[in-house]
């Protein structure tokens, strides 16, 4: 069974700027209201999604930049964790 993953913010997971974090523009977010510092989001694209923590939002002349700290591991590991937590509740 293939599960379609909804990406919160489209990002090139290999694009790091001088901060050392992956960056994307806020207007690439499916729902910009969930993109807040400290939030855990799904970043990347449908082919290569990853869990990331939003580090900060920086105003820039070309738009708001979102810095993302991509967490280790594959998305399926985080999904399994979420399922375990949900079934225990």
Task: Set down the secondary structure blueprint.
Layout: E1 9-10, E2 22-25, E3 40-44, E4 49-58, E5 65-70, H1 75-88
Quick overview:
This protein has 89 residues and is of the alpha+beta class.
Strand order of the largest sheet: 1-3-4-5-2
Q: How far apart, in Å, are the first and last alpha carbons?
A: 25 Å
Tally of DSSP β-strands: 5
Structural class, by secondary structure, is: alpha+beta
Helix content percent band: 10-25%
Order of helices and strands: EEEEEH
- Our count of helices gives 1
Mean pLDDT reading:
92
Largest sheet: 5 strands, mixed
The oligomeric status of these chains comes to single chain
Provide the β-strand percentage band: 25-35%
Number of domains as seen in the coordinates: 1
Report the principal-axis shape: elongated
C-alpha Rg (nearest Å): 14 Å
User: Can you tell me the residue ranges where pLDDT is under 50 for at least 5 consecutive residues?
Assistant: none
